[in-house]
Design a protein that fits this description.
4-stranded mixed beta sheet, 13 helices, alpha/beta, Potassium Channel Kv1.1, Chain A, about 350 residues
Length: about 350
Amino acid sequence: MEPKTEVMDPYGDVLAILPCSPTPTKLQISSKILSTASPVFRSMFSPRFREGAALASSSSPTKLIEIEFPDDSAQALEAVFNVLHFRHDHVSANVSFEVLYEIALVADKYDVTAALGPWKEGFRKGCREAIVQDPGEWEEEEEEEETDKRRREAGKSWGCEALPEKVIESISAARTSTIQSLLSVAEHFRTLYQDPGIKCKVRTPTSVFGASNTQALTCDAAILGSLLRHYAAIGIFPVPPPPYKGISVESLALAMKNLRCFVDFDAGHGGCMVVGQVVKMVDEVLAGVDRLDIWEFVGRGRADGVEDGDGGAWWVKGSGFVDRERSPGSRFTVRSRGRGGGVGGNVGGVRSLFGR
């Protein structure tokens, strides 16, 4: 099938070839934009490498230099290139977790994290969804295929089978920790109302005979009963053990927020309900998920060095470069500590696309 050409910059001097996409694609892009956004691309397009030498020696300003990216995700590269070329209307933050991971790999490998700017917050949504929507059912190997099918049909599959084990472990750990935090909220209110102290906000004077405030005790008992009945109905009383199979953060949080307290409104006990407090604490737990950066658990592998075809190398260390002499015929190659090689090689982990 003939490649289609997408013009990202009509004045671009490079054709990025993405042969690994379903339909082979060529993207007309600007080496100047990429060089400004990325020190890795800046090096690629310098005269010391074949790609840069070809640009410098081009006899015609309209002749485009073709560069292949055989090993990177085509969808991820296209998304990143669109952002860098200010084509924000061509980018969607609603991407699968698998593509999200590939975008993070591309951003780390070519050091364009800062250039992606606000988009990293939009892409972060995918991380959150992977944590809060996962019911943990994929952990049973024999049920994995059927579970993935159900989740795809429900539109909640994040393609865990295509992700590195460390990423899956990080998602699972974040999910388990968040569910434990939600269960701690439930435990807090259950313990509070099992305590003999009076919590009712409607207090009447104790009688001259020293009788206890039965109305207040009745109010507290009604709230405790409401809590226990609701917890049992949503499956968290008795408290379930980890790994909480079949429970997602999203479904548990919603169920906890649907608490109904049966109190005597006519006697003025409406203000004694704890529904608002429960909702507030649940929202605080969910806000913690938004602050999570699962990439911190993945590892900090990155494109560490650049090799030429003769084995010479100059290494990227922080923001500095240690250069060795080379001929203009050397081909730019990104190497990493992890897997892959060549311009399109993948890295072994993700550094900071979603870092704070």
